[in-house]
Design goal:
The complex is a heterodimer.
Chain A: E1 4-8, H1 15-21, H2 25-37, E2 40-47, E3 52-58, H3 65-75, E4 87-90, H4 92-102, H5 114-128, H6 134-153, H7 163-174, E5 182-186, H8 190-201, E6 206-211, H9 214-224, E7 227-230, E8 243-246, H10 257-266, E9 272-276, E10 293-297, H11 298-335, H12 339-361, H13 367-397, H14 402-415, H15 418-424
Parallel strand pairs in A: 5-6, 5-8, 6-7, 8-9, 9-10
Antiparallel strand pairs in A: 1-3, 1-4, 2-3
Helix pairs in contact in A: 4-6, 4-11, 6-11, 7-8, 7-11, 12-13
Chain B: H1 2-29, H2 35-60, H3 68-90, H4 96-113, H5 127-161, H6 167-171, H7 175-207, H8 216-236, H9 242-266
Helix pairs in contact in B: 1-2, 1-4, 2-3, 3-4, 3-5, 5-7, 5-9, 7-8, 7-9, 8-9
The chains are: A alpha/beta, B mainly alpha.
């Protein structure tokens, strides 16, 4: 199978280059058009902020990986893409790499399941652009299966692996129902905004924001439909919140232990979670000594992240086993697309239908006629299959590309359901 | 029938240990592999145990509630059965090993010391006593489960405070859920202990006309009842929460167990039936 693959990813290129080479949906469409016009018959282009990959089947056997590289280099000619920025894959290696990408074990954050959706979206574009043929479709079916199996059969995507998600995981170990809880976000920079959105996504009951620049807080509050407190008096409202996330760029502490003690008294010591995800820290770490106060900073959240990443890494061998199973299954299908096995399967299928029907009606015939029935029905089957058999032999003996032969044979197999028949056996 | 009763009595601790093992393995490993099979295992153990209780009742012509070792086997059953129902209703599946181990303790003691008892003291042949014991069993199951969830709450509370994110952190439900489970179990326990005491007080003068109200069993039981009552009132008034209430639940459970051991084995009490 002449599937060529190239990849620029976090192992081969710095982040600036990866960002520069990122293709949005429209760019992928244009790139596919150029690829189709040049030397490639079908393929898929995957591009995320961390990787850009091209998998394609050439129209001619003379086309090589260098031609695929040139396409990217020419498309992004203003950037200095070097040979060493590329990883190369041929045939089984290409399919295997695509499977590894789809299930997230090649991702920067191992087990990241967003990549699964991104790969499917990229395939959708190939379909739209009529760049996905029989083989690519089948490869993608298998890749989708690998992705789903990896999620359901292993723990590769379990546990929080970012600080923001880790803080939500921690909050959910303290409170059972976020819908009945309230949260205050102090600081509406990028980190604060992400935290606010995570809590909103998890269904927090009441969300409020505060920020030194009131306008900035108001802007985010309008987007998230939340309340805003002026930074000057937010401490007066601290006791009203079950969760406080602080992510300002202040140089010193903005909430002291005394502030928390006062808030806890007003709350009658109902549990309060303090997430200090600012560097340097915003909340006095001594607050953790107060009963029912759960204080956590970046370091403690990183412990969760590291543990979960470790667990995900330990799941990689299980995912690799799934990949090997699906690779074997895919190539078993691919090799069945050769003419000789298809002729045999086709003839076996017709013979089984004939034998089954004869069996059903054989008792209606006399002893003499039974033999004739066998001969006549076999003759009919042979006549029906004579022409398809000759044509299949011709396909395999001509100079047509192996991929084109495979596509034609695949159509025949699909038409008569020969793949299902084989699986049933 | 006797050989069957002896065989099941011998096998029951092994059944509970096997159930505990599968629950504990699932707790350690995580995932969904044993999620349903462990429940089936517990169900089969409970069926087996129920069969044992029925066989004893038929063979010895009285329900197994007339001495402390008979009570222990019913208590082992009641605790695991309560947990089984709790797991079905709440779908919280990872706390099983901590409850089942309590059943193991009671069942092992019962298996070792229980005797074939055909003769029952005349004083114990009373319908009121039957209701008293059943109510006490539900009550004790309630306070046992409350104490276990309370204990788990304290461990998880400490782990989160100390940034220890190990097995306990990953497997147990949230602190809020543990607190609620402990509280509701304590409420059930308290209500049934109250019924137990009321029936006991009605039955007591009939059965033991010379009873003294300074009997260790009565003092112990009232102490446990007052302790739980005091804690629950404070909870309803919004004064107590979290650790404080849970500590009370654990102390209450410990007192209840100590009171049972003391009055049944060590002190001279009207309640020494063994």
């Amino acid at each position: 199978m002449n599937l060529l693959g190239i990849s620029i990813n976090h192992h081969t290129a710095p982040v600036e280059l990866r960002e520069a080479l990122h293709l949005n949906a429209n760019e992928i469409r244009t790139f596919i058009q150029q690829t189709k016009d040049s030397a490639f018959a079908e393929g898929i282009i995957i591009s995320t902020c961390n990787r850009t990959e091209v998998y394609a089947i050439p129209k001619s056997d003379k086309t090589s990986l260098k031609d695929l590289e040139s396409l990217i280099k020419n498309y992004k000619s203003s950037f200095d893409v070097k040979d060493e920025n590329f990883q190369h894959f041929i045939s089984r290696e290409s399919v295997e790499h695509l499977f590894r990408v789809a299930c997230g074990i090649e991702s920067l954050l191992i087990g990241d399941n967003q990549i699964f959706k991104q790969v499917k979206d990229c395939f959708q574009i190939s379909e739209e652009m009529e760049f996905a043929g029989v083989l690519i479709r089948r490869v993608m079916d298998a890749a989708t299966r690998v992705g789903k199996r990896a999620i359901t059969e292993t723990a590769i995507s379990e546990g929080a692996v970012t600080v923001s998600y880790a803080s939500v995981q921690l909050v959910e170990k303290i409170f059972s129902n976020l819908q009945k809880k309230s949260a205050l976000i102090i600081g509406t920079g990028e980190t604060g905004e992400i935290a606010a959105k995570h809590l909103r996504d998890r269904g927090i009951g009441r969300l409020a924001l505060t920020n030194r620049s009131f306008e900035k807080a108001e802007k985010l509050a309008a987007e998230l439909n939340t309340a805003v407190f002026p930074f000057s008096n937010f401490k007066e409202h601290l006791h009203k919140f079950d969760i406080v996330v602080s992510a300002t760029s202040a140089e010193g502490l903005i909430i002291t232990k005394k502030d928390i003690e006062e808030a806890m008294k007003k709350r009658n010591y109902a549990s309060m979670v303090l997430m200090d995800i600012a560097i340097p820290r915003d909340i006095d770490p001594e607050s953790k000594k107060i009963d029912y106060v759960f204080y956590h900073d970046i370091d403690s959240l990183n412990i969760i992240v590291e543990q979960n990443l470790g667990k995900r890494k330990s799941e990689i061998p299980k995912v690799e086993k799934i990949i090997q199973e699906e690779l074997d299954s895919f190539f078993e299908w691919y090799h069945s697309l050769e003419a000789a096995p298809t002729i045999k399967t086709l003839r076996d299928y017709f013979e089984s239908v004939r034998a089954e029907e004869v069996e059903k009606s054989i008792n209606k015939f006399s002893e003499n006629d039974k033999e004739k029935l066998e001969i006549i029905t076999k003759r009919i089957i042979n006549k029906i299959l004579h022409h398809p058999t000759i044509e299949l032999r011709k396909i395999s003996e001509s100079d047509v590309r192996a991929e084109d032969t495979a596509a034609k044979i695949s159509t025949i197999r699909d038409l008569f359901g020969l793949n299902e028949k084989k699986e049933e056996k | 029938m006797l050989p069957s009763i002896h065989t099941i009595n011998f096998l029951l601790p092994f059944f509970y240990v096997a159930t505990f093992a599968i629950y504990f393995y699932d707790f350690q490993q995580g995932g969904k592999k044993f999620q349903n099979s462990k429940r089936l295992f517990l169900f089969l153990t409970l069926i087996f145990h129920f069969l044992y209780l029925v066989l004893r009742t038929v063979e010895f012509n009285h329900p197994p509630i007339t001495n402390v070792f008979e009570i222990f086997t019913v208590l082992a059953f009641a605790i695991s059965f309560s947990y089984f129902i709790l797991e079905l209703v709440t779908d919280i599946r990872r706390t099983g090993p901590f409850i089942i181990i309590i059943s193991i303790i009671f069942q092992v003691i019962s298996t070792l010391f229980i005797q074939d008892l055909a003769e029952v003291k005349e004083v114990l042949r009373s319908n009121l006593l039957g209701i008293h014991v059943i109510s006490a069993l539900i009550g004790y199951s309630g306070i046992t489960i409350s104490a276990v969830y309370g204990f788990l709450y304290l461990i998880l509370y400490k782990e989160i405070k100390l940034n220890k994110f190990g097995l306990i952190f990953n497997r147990l439900p949230s602190l809020e859920i543990l607190e609620k489970m402990s509280f509701f179990s304590a409420v059930i326990g308290f209500v049934f202990l109250t019924i137990t005491i009321i029936i006991g007080v009605i039955w007591l003068p009939q059965a033991f006309p010379n009873i003294k109200f300074t009997d260790p069993k009565l003092i112990g039981t009232f102490a446990v009842w007052i302790l739980y009552g005091f804690g629950l009132i404070n909870k309803f008034l919004g004064k107590w929460r979290g650790k404080k209430l849970i500590m009370l639940s654990i102390i209450g459970f410990t007192l209840a167990i100590l009171s049972t051991i003391l009055t049944n084995f060590l002190a001279k009490s009207f309640h020494s039936f063994y």
